[in-house]
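cache lookup: miss for this entity combination. No prior model stored, computing from scratch. Input as submitted by user K.M.:
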Amino acid sequence: MDYDVNGTTIAADEEGYITNLSEWSKELADVIAVNEKIDMNEEHWEVVNFLRDYYEEYQIAPAVRVLIKSVKKTMGKEKGNNKYMYELFPYGPAKQACKIAGLPKPTGCV
Amino acid sequence: MSEIKKFLYVNRKAPYGTIYALESLEVVLIGAAFEQDVSLAFLDDGVFQLTKGQNTDGIGIKNFSPTYRALGDYEVTKLYVEQESLDERGLTLDDLQAVVYEDEDDDWEEKPSIRVVSRAEMADIMADQDVVLSF
């Protein structure tokens, strides 16, 4: 399932995760988000950027509980909880947010 | 939920060239979700998995060594490294990257995850496990 960003085709796997991580752009993130039926606002971007930073540092997409724990540590408990995350990304913060962030599917996420 | 078991993942191979090191790390990350008592052992060429300054540009493989530093987030905080294996390869603790975790019971103080142990101590650690998985 590929994406089209201003006429350029970006390859993705059958679940919608892009195959070449270096092809990510903010424009692509918006296209993936529309596909996921998510209307990106500042709160969504905050999580997406957090995930990209995490991947840059550790070379993995974190599991949901690790994501939530890390967000709690850096952004506070108002944001580092299940309810907040699932309101932003109803089909799973790790799954959907990672997809939008252009990361691989989180390790151990089925 | 059954009682907590002690799992030890034994790593004996160099990080690249075979898939064992990466597979072990991925199993550890997946297994961490099951809230068991998880430890990792590094011996023989496995000690090279933790060396700092790894650069895989020339072999076209992802450098996954930064991922060991995420283990603390997954509550995997015991990385046993065998002293004799380091010695035999001319390595010391200084050649390994720093891996730390935050101790929840001690005001989130950062503590080292890597513990260098002797071959005899490693044998005792292995004997003490419920499950030992070799990679």
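stored under new cache key. Residues 3-100 of chain A form a domain with the Arc Repressor Mutant, subunit A fold (CATH 1.10.10.370).
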